[in-house]
Design a protein that fits this description.
2 copies of one chain form a homodimer.
Chain A: H1 2-19, H2 23-39, H3 41-57, H4 62-68, H5 72-86, E1 95-100, E2 106-113, E3 116-121, H6 126-137, E4 141-145, H7 151-167, E5 175-177, H8 183-189, E6 198-202, H9 205-214, E7 227-231, H10 237-249, E8 258-264, H11 268-282, E9 285-288, E10 300-301, E11 315-321, H12 324-334, E12 339-343, H13 347-356, E13 361-366, E14 383-385, E15 393-395, E16 401-412
Parallel strand pairs in A: 3-4, 3-6, 4-5, 7-8, 7-12, 8-11, 9-10, 9-11, 12-13
Antiparallel strand pairs in A: 1-2, 2-16, 14-15
Pfam family, one (chains A, B): Aldedh
Pathway (chains A, B): Amino-acid biosynthesis; L-proline biosynthesis; L-glutamate 5-semialdehyde from L-glutamate: step 2/2
Catalytic activity (chains A, B): L-glutamate 5-semialdehyde + phosphate + NADP(+) = L-glutamyl 5-phosphate + NADPH + H(+)
Chain lengths: ~425, ~425
């Protein structure tokens, strides 16, 4: 148990050094890390081979084995992701709103790292390099606690990163891997509020609930994405069909895929006829409200509870609404706070929707699939928050920082 | 128990209405609330009289009775504080960084209310009006859970505010007072994470620890203020004396008062001689390190643990340091993250301090007593955060809001 505490304390100490690095120093460090990852390809593949063998023995699902698998090409793209993070602008040290007060003191805010971030994740070895690079670029130390399935891969990646850090004079405790994915140790980690500033869990709802329920440290929460598309009576039906199919079928297993279609009753006859044909072609299973059911040859009846379902597959809930207000009320009741889309050509309706819906990402005439750090222009994403505190929506480098006040006087007193 | 849940749900529903109000609507509401408070002076004084009688019977300390007491003048100043909040700029609806992505979608951020804020406080009836006004101005509903000692005063103030809200068509659940300060009900309140977005405890360390330890809702933490003044070897000694005396003696019982003086050894002989005379005159009790002890006629020896003490009275810890770096290391070890001050005329040293120290407020040549929402220009303060998540330092209206992403497209898909 003392080991976890010691790891956290060393990370806190390493964070003090990182917070003082210049952007140039940090970029040089990240580029060295990328080069080292490529140089250590054989060692990393050897670690990964152990995980793959154990995974096959445990008969992990094919999708999981694929997430776990590293290849020379995948290591190359890991390294390139680290290079891309080096190229992002550094938020640390930015000063804003510097202004004098009546007594002559100057007051402003300066952006600073959070300190130590703990990442809790499952069987994705790439997170080790990604999260390490994002945290270092924003001046934070990171403690990585991945799943048992990817442990050897993660340790090999971390060992490679440590080599690069040592050549740059950086305390390797700035990227620490918890070497034992035991739950008791995770619980111990979640108690270290004196040294860890933020916990970011990435994975299934079970993991996130476990972390939230047991953490004494603030947690970024992202439970699920029940994303809505509301097709307004003033919608352009071609655009609406494009948004619907892209949102539901382009990659149904991710959190920014659509789960619910709301249609205004005035255009329901036309639009649901189109949707029905398209769903049949794409083999999308439909759960429809009473008013929508007649438009589908094959659909199950959706009761109210159905609208709280995140399918993560080719299935969708469909509801016909009598008005814009009914659509908004439905979203407010069933939203998971992730992403909601309106399709309308009416400017007033679009503006009302942008103002009234307070999910993390609110869109007009654009696909919910754009709700992603890369697509929204953050450069890289360390997670997505569906709770409003600290960060809301896709989280980039700025979300790993905070602001302190700075005051410059000339001896003023109160 | 169901009552607490019902109060929270009603507050959440009221918050949806508040989030849509224009700044003009909110200002009109606050001005009506101020007028109503003055009109209800007699009713509020009657409620307060009950609390005062009970407080005297319970033999509350004089300082506590004074905090509890309302007078016609104090009610007038409560009303004026609400008017001052009406005059502050509204952060809600502000849009920033709206910019096109390569595919033509426009992406930006819009500031929105958090939703429902729970204030947990002790025997200060003025918080009922202050916090109510700050939360409403920022579009949030608020649940107020004050101490038993001020309950009748709080209920009378809330009843007055509700009258004004009703004339403006605002759901009175937007300001809810928990009518029973039972701890079991507080525990129940701290579980309502589905309807409450943020908990702000204001009071002693015991209350804040209790709230943090039991809350399933994010909590703004402010334990204590161990504020440091470091007098550098390049300090202007007159300015340093002014900052020291103002910081320690102007109002020693508050969290932005100084608790520790660090002095560079090169100027310790001169400066500590001045400080010693001044402390004697002002009757400040001194706890000094071995190197500092000889300068004081009457001082106790300070061991390392002494430097973690928040005195909140006319007492101070004093340490002589061999270098700037030793001062920074001492602060990093003992700081509570509140406010630290350097006194120096050396620009490079000042810049290093501003960068290296990551407390919520970092000052050069200015009194720690300026570390306050009003003095820093926030207009009003709902609390102060010494944890880095969401808000750090004095919290104004902006701290009661968050940002969502908004996306405007023309049918783009991925």
């Amino acid at each position: 148990m003392t080991t976890i505490k010691a790891i956290c304390k060393q990370a806190k100490s390493a964070a003090l050094q990182l917070a003082q690095l210049s952007e140039a120093d940090k970029n040089q460090l990240l580029l060295a890390m990328a080069t080292q990852l490529e140089a250590d390809t054989a060692l990393i593949l050897a670690g990964n081979a152990k995980d793959m063998a154990a995974g096959r023995e445990k008969q992990l699902a094919d999708a999981m084995l694929d997430r776990l698998l590293l290849t020379e090409e995948r290591i190359k793209s890991l390294a390139n992701a680290v290079r891309a993070i080096a190229a992002l602008p550094d938020p640390v040290g930015q000063i804003r709103q510097m202004a004098p007060r009546p007594n002559g003191i100057q007051v402003g805010k300066m952006r600073i790292p959070l300190g130590v971030i703990a990442m809790i994740y499952e069987a994705r070895p790439n997170v080790t390099a990604d999260a390490g690079a994002l945290c270092l670029k924003s001046g934070n130390a990171v403690i990585l606690r991945g799943g048992r399935e990817a442990l050897n891969s993660s340790l090999a990646i971390a060992a490679s990163l440590h080599k690069a850090m040592e050549t740059q004079g950086i305390n390797p405790a700035a990227i620490s891997v918890i070497p034992d994915p035991d739950r008791a140790l995770l619980l111990e980690l979640l108690q270290q509020k004196d040294s860890v500033d933020l916990v970011i869990p990435r994975g299934g709802e079970g993991l996130i609930h476990f972390v939230s329920d047991h953490s004494k440290i603030p947690v970024i929460q992202h439970y699920k994405g029940i994303c809505h598309l509301y097709v307004d009576k003033a919608a352009d039906l071609d655009k609406a069909m494009a948004l619907l199919l892209n949102g539901k079928t382009q990659r149904p297993g991710v959190c920014n895929a659509l789960e619910t279609l709301l249609v205004h009753q005035d255009i329901a006859p036309q639009f649901l006829a189109l949707a029905s044909a398209a769903f049949e072609e794409k083999q999308v299973e439909v759960f429809a409200c009473d008013l929508s059911l007649p438009y589908f040859a094959q659909a199950s009846k959706a009761d109210e509870a159905q609208f709280d379902t995140e399918y993560l597959r080719l299935a969708i809930s469909v509801k016909t609404v009598a008005s814009y207000d009914e659509a908004v009320a439905h979203i407010q009741r069933h939203s998971s706070g992730h992403t909601e889309v309106i399709c309308t050509q009416d400017l007033s309706t679009a503006q009302r929707f942008l103002k009234q819906i307070n999910s993390a990402v609110v869109m007009v005439n654009a696909s919910s699939r754009f709700s992603d750090g890369g697509e929204l222009g953050l450069g890289a994403e360390i997670g997505i928050s569906t709770s409003k505190l600290h960060a809301y929506g896709p989280m980039g480098l700025e979300s790993l920082t905070t602001e302190k006040y700075i005051v410059i006087g000339d001896g003023q007193t109160r």
